[in-house]
Design goal:
mainly alpha, 75% helix, 93 residues, 4 helices, globular
């Protein structure tokens, strides 16, 4: 797992710890799903599919609208980290 993705998951988990239950539960599920998208702790030769990462970003957009205060800021940081990862990761061939 890359540094950006690990940091994004950390932000998502912290946001979930601070958020109301309507945001907490889907956010924690999404954090676990992100680990699956990027292969968890497995060594991976290829980049995860962009469409799955875009789906995670889209769901974070929705949760950001529902969140308030610190959780909202943490979700924004997580989205930025995922965007950085997508921009910097090598493309699939």
């Amino acid at each position: 797992m890359t540094d950006e993705i690990a940091r994004a998951r950390e932000e998502m988990e912290r946001a979930g710890d601070e958020a109301e239950s309507n945001v907490r539960e889907p956010l924690m599920s999404l954090s676990e799903g992100l680990m699956e998208v990027v292969g968890g702790d497995k060594t991976q030769d290829t980049r995860p599919h962009d469409d799955r990462l875009r789906e995670v970003e889209h769901r974070l957009d929705e949760l950001e609208e529902e969140a308030e205060g610190s959780p909202r800021e943490r979700i924004r940081r997580a989205k930025a980290l995922i965007a950085d990862y997508r921009q910097d990761a090598p493309t699939e061939e």
